[in-house]
Design brief:
The chain is α/β, with parallel strands linked by helices and 504 residues long. It has 11 helices and 23 strands. Helices cover 26% and strands 23% of the residues. The protein starts with a strand and ends in a 17-residue tail after the last helix.
Length: 504
């Protein structure tokens, strides 16, 4: 016996066995339903309407098919927007020993966004760049959700989704891709596994060892729309939770070549942190969560047209800037950090993140702009995220018997990190309160490191050395981290002397 599930808006149908969830039926029919929590029934964002006469709203990931039904899905508010740029800038490298001749493709597989860059490996020229939403988001917003989806048999599907993302980005450009003869893929360890269709589940289970640290394949073996004989490399990872993207960050910053001690913070769902110099490198990951990515916030969205990206509060009135101008559709990560900092500075939230009477929040909901809000629980999630990142950084620094003030540089990596207002980040206790001149924004250093890998033999040698020699600190078994994490769950921190420039 099978049941017929018809998706009205998409005019697609699937025949499924009894007990199949609506989400699984949608996948069988080729219909996209976002599952931000990986189908665990937590987020409520996969709701659909079933029934033709008597209509009922249900969660697609939790509702089994028990009869023939009609389903009305919610059209995704955010499309997989692609930004493509033609570029002809020269890329400085230490040496001129490219992987091979012809064109090369650098790929940064982020949990939220995928970015690519096509380069001329003979003349060391950047040719094209593009970025778009990682289609895997439809099967889980964060790494843990995708690992669970993979463990449930979805590894092949997740591979197909990221390959579709990358190949679509390649076809942003009119030129063919068959002359791409080398590829370097940079990303966290789980994303690299899923790119190759390998289930990363061993990462989350004792003894927490990845299936591979680095891998090589060919164009035809990878599924990429490049030359079938292309050399395809993955940037070597350090551990299960510190991947090749951080190795890329370190090489772009030059931390592994410097005499002075520097700190690197990669702001993302994992919140990776590295501390070191040419003599040593210590790394960790803090599972920060997607609070700054917009996925778990009522009005959150990526940094796209219509997103509030900057906030000021004057006389308890919110002023904001919107990407592209016009009326706001939501708020992105940089705007969220600004908002919390400004609300705190204005006395509209207290040190615990609770709204005060000055905020005029109704039932724990504060209106930023018409149709754009933030809730009390969402502010709490933001505070937990910033606490995870800051406490990871402080745990590393204190483990070496030094303070933040002893550092030569503090590098901020990640495409999102490049747009964070430094003063706002320090006000909420996300970044250390030190001389601002110590801070260096790297932008998308994961992509930059992949480009350098294609063009420079010395960079390839350095990445292997970093991967082999860096020491991973497991925060989950470190009591000092939990003490730090508890202390950091306030604005900006329980220890006021940690943030001398923040007045509260």
């Amino acid at each position: 016996m099978t049941f017929r599930v018809r998706f009205v808006s998409e005019n697609k149908t699937a025949e499924v066995e009894p007990g199949t969830t609506i989400a699984q039926a949608a996948a069988a029919a080729g219909v996209t339903i976002n599952l931000p929590c990986g189908g665990q029934g937590r987020c409520g964002k996969c709701s659909v309407i079933i029934g033709s006469e008597i209509k009922k709203r249900v969660l697609a990931c939790q509702t089994p098919v028990e009869e023939d039904i009609e389903v009305m899905t919610q059209k995704a508010a955010e499309k997989n927007k692609v930004v493509g740029i033609t570029d002809h800038r020269r890329i400085p490298v230490d040496d001129k020993t490219s992987v091979t001749s012809g064109h090369g493709l650098a790929i940064d597989i982020g949990t939220t966004t995928v970015a690519i860059e096509v380069v001329d490996m003979d003349d060391h020229l950047a040719l094209y760049r593009a970025a778009g939403v990682n289609m895997q988001r439809d099967r889980g917003e964060d790494v843990l959700a995708r690992m669970q989806y993979s463990a449930d048999g979805g590894a092949s599907e997740l591979k197909g989704l990221v390959l579709s993302t990358i190949n679509d980005l390649l076809y942003t450009f009119t030129e063919g891709t068959q002359n791409i003869n080398a590829v370097c893929v940079s990303g966290n360890t789980a994303m690299t596994h899923l790119f190759l269709g390998v289930d990363p589940s061993p990462i989350r289970e004792p003894p927490y060892i990845p299936v591979f640290v680095k891998a090589e394949t060919t164009g035809s073996g990878s599924g990429l729309d490049v030359s079938p004989d292309a050399l395809v490399y993955t940037m070597p990872a350090i551990s299960s939770y510190v991947g090749g993207d951080v190795v890329s960050d370190i090489t772009v910053a030059g931390m592994d070549l410097s005499e002075g001690m520097s700190l690197l913070i990669d702001v993302g769902t994992n919140g990776e942190v590295a501390l070191g110099n040419r003599d040593m490198m210590l790394v960790c990951s803090s599972s920060a969560g997607p609070a700054f990515e917009g996925s778990t916030t009522t009005s959150g969205m990526l940094a796209q047209l219509g997103a509030i990206d900057g906030v000021k509060v004057e006389d308890c009135k919110v002023r904001y800037t919107v990407i592209g101008g016009g009326e706001p559709k939501g708020i992105c990560g940089s705007g969220i950090i600004d908002l919390v900092a400004q609300l705190f500075a204005a006395g509209m939230i207290d040190r615990r993140g609770n709204f005060t009477e000055r905020a005029d929040a109704e039932d724990g909901v504060f209106t930023i702009a018409p149709g754009v809000v933030i809730t009390q629980s969402e502010i709490m999630d933001i505070m937990l995220t910033k606490a995870a990142i800051y406490s990871a950084a402080r745990t590393l620094v204190r483990s070496m018997g030094i303070g933040f003030g002893d550092l030569d540089k503090i590098y901020i990596a990640g495409g999102f990190g490049n747009f964070i207002n430094l003063d706002s980040a320090i006000t909420i206790g996300l970044f250390p309160d030190v001389d601002r001149s110590k801070y260096v924004y790297l932008g998308n250093a994961s992509l930059g490191g992949a480009v350098n890998y294609l063009l420079s033999e010395s960079v390839r040698t350095r990445t292997d050395a970093i991967s082999c020699n860096a020491t991973y600190l497991d925060l989950s078994s470190d009591p000092a981290f939990y003490d730090e994490y508890t202390s950091a769950q306030f604005l900006p921190h329980t220890e006021r002397d940690q943030f001398p420039s923040v007045h509260f």
